[in-house]
Amino acid sequence: MLAWAARRAPATPRRLSIVPRTNFRSAANCLNDRAVFAGWGRFVYHRRWWVLALSLLLLGVVAGVGFGFKGQLNNSSSVHYESIQANDLLTAELPKVQGAGGATFEIVFASTSMHVSDPAYRAAVEKTLAPLAADSHVATIVTPYTTSGAAAQALESRDGKEALAVITLKDAFQTARGYFPALRSTIHSDQLQTFVTGNVAISADFDTYLARDLNRAELSSIPTSLILLLVVFATLIAALLPIGVGGAAVVAGVAATLLLARFTDVSTYALNIVTLIGLGVAIDYSLLIVNRFKEELQGGADVEHAVERSMATAGRAVTFSGLTVAIGLAGMLFFPGTFLVSMGVAGSIVVALAVVFALTLLPALLSLSGHSVLRLRIPFFGTRSASTFWQTAAGWVMRRPVPVLLASLVFVGLTAWPVLSIRIANGDEHMLPPQAQSVVGVDRLAADFPGQDQNTIIAVVHYPSGPVLTSQRIGELYDYAQQLKALPDVIGVDSVVTFNPSLGRQQYQDLLTTTPSPLPAAVQQQLSQTYGKDIAVFSIRTDKPAQSDAAVSLLNRIRTGAHPAGATLLVTGNTAFNQDFIHLILADAPGAVIFVILVTYVVLFLLVGSVLLPLKAVLTNLLSLSASFGLIVFIFQEGHLASLLNFTPQSIDPTLPVLMFCIVFGLSMDYEVMLLTRIQEVYKRTGDNLVAVTEGLARSGRIITGAAGIMVVVFLSFGLAQVLLIKAIGIGLAVAVVIDATVMRMLIVPAVMRLLQDVNWWAPGPLRRLHDALGLGEGAAPPSRPETGEAA
């Protein structure tokens, strides 16, 4: 069918009667006086000093309030799925099991020559721990020297050369995060190696590496973006303006995010995402407007009309681009209770600020600078060879749309192929670089200490109606423990009815119901951690890793298996947390995807007034996403480039596809809007689809290339991050932009538009009238003038 359409297409396509040229002209003339964007351009020009002052005031107020009243970032969750409910029960009834509400961390001591039992080894450990023992924040310190028996053996490595110290703090996790770096700075030894790990240490390492990643990205992306802007514009002032607007958007966005953290939970990743998105879109939006302003000046327009026309065309495109990006980010709001919501809100805020500054601060500066943007030219930059290249490329695509389309689809299919083998699992400490001290500590624990490589699934049996230790319930719990022991891959079960393997069902009933208890005090203390007022806890040990298929199968058997009558069963532990979160993401994802696609479709219809072009845009976006997902799996799951990029290959975190979809779907529309607005402008002037697509592609190719280049630079600067999630997002977005700005926008989109011809612009009569009535058109085009060769 496509080949037939290509053969049948005449050299000069005729226009369909459903969209005659006169309709476009009359609509344009009708909208000329009402075009909101052109009117805004005139307003800014005549009140440029006021607009500039108000823009800077907005920046100052947001920055002052945000940095002055900032809150603390964290990755807490308020979703009460099963594993969280079980954990809440444990915290409420067995606080000692949960560290008495205090945070904990561990120190691994290691020596190449001394044994843990050597006096010199013990002296070195105690000397290292002395500052912690004297610190008022520390509640307890447990070492092989402060306990005995099996507990002491568990704190000593198999070869006897490593020892483990467990430190419990008096404060809860969020409070402890604030002072932990100062505590860690006191931990050092002249004789032993020390590796600080555990939840608080891992969190502190994430904070440290994220801050370093952010600083590195800013320092590398801004200078490189300036060089690319000089290549695009060839004049210093024109290149500096987008950098200034991008900096303003990022500063205000970061400040707003920190202020948001004062009132709600905001992810520790939020600042990196805000900077990544804000810098990229703000510079791109400014590039588009400055480029159009330059083109209008070079075409003979005065400054006022250049500002007006830039707002009516590029300003309009920027507004719709911002809407599509914000819509994509709003998809994260469909995951309530997770840190994704805060990232979506923070991202939407910085995009809104980028649009606001692009439509206020930038046109005010352009109005004041006027023809100065054409001065201070950089030699050898800004040649017209790029325009010639895109003119040739446009003609090449128009002459062979079917081969171009088929070849592009084959390329996308091959690139997306690895996504079929994707494995989803929650990220852990190995999202940090392999050399991070907390990661080294975790790996040493798993490799060298007995039992530390085991995965524990915790089953909480809850009796809402009464006490646990009645004779009947003890018998039921014993039977349940035997049932758990018989499950595949279970290597042990620790509970109130399994502490002595030589005892039988009746003996447990007798021992646990006798008052006073005949059990030794040490045993009673041990058992007090396995049951509460109305719960019994079963710690099910397995040697299968927490995120393995075998561990997930075991979890499912426990959850779906029989449990004591009259009780409810809640299961927690790392495997349960992992699966519950994945199920939460999968359950909420369809709503987010449908929302983003439908609202994006509506916004694009309002932009172009066509029902087919938004559908094509959505489909090409999905193709672009598929290709980028495939490459993410190829790199980060399968481990290609792991040594070069310094990361540990692992399953894909469930939040990564969500973040990629929400960000990429919005950002991809930037180039769609840039391309379609230019094509639409030519089509309204000529009524000829072939001319419009060819000229639109030729004249927007250079600006899309420049914009995409800047986006890639910004995203790759985050691809150099040490934290895997940020690294994967940066590289994934960079790949997506490259594919989108080349294969999608420069090959597939024009090829499809060439084949569809004038049907591209069709809309039912009522929808067409609705679009015209809303007054969102560009207004009448200026009188024809010689082409400048500049991109729009």
Looking at this protein, list some descriptive labels.
elongated; disordered C terminus; four-stranded antiparallel β-sheet; 28 helices; disordered N terminus
Task: Write a compact overview of the structure shown.
The chain has 792 residues and is an alpha+beta fold. The protein has 28 helices and eight strands.
Q: Care to describe what's here?
A:
Among the domains are: 185 residues, Multidrug efflux transporter AcrB transmembrane fold; 107 residues, 2-Layer Sandwich (Alpha-Beta Plaits), CATH 3.30.70; 103 residues, no CATH class. The protein is elongated and about 100 Å long. It is built from 28 helices and eight strands. The strands form two sheets. It has a four-stranded antiparallel β-sheet, sandwiched between helices. It has 792 residues and is an alpha+beta fold. 63% of the residues lie in helices and 6% in strands. The longest helix is centred in the first third of the chain and has 35 residues.
Compute the number of helices: 28
CATH topology of one domain: Multidrug efflux transporter AcrB transmembrane fold
Biggest β-sheet: strands ordered side by side in the sheet: 2-3-1-4
CATH architecture grouping of one domain = Up-down Bundle
Mean pLDDT across all amino acids = 83
Give the CATH class of one domain. Mainly Alpha
User: What percent strand?
Assistant: 5-15%
Low-confidence stretches: 1-34, 778-792
- Work out the radius of gyration: 32 Å
* Helix content estimate: 55-70%
Q: How does the major sheet shape up?
A: 4 strands, antiparallel
Structural class: alpha+beta
Task: Determine the N-to-C terminus distance.
Answer: 34 Å
Number of strands: 8
Described by the principal axes of the CA atoms, the overall outline is: elongated
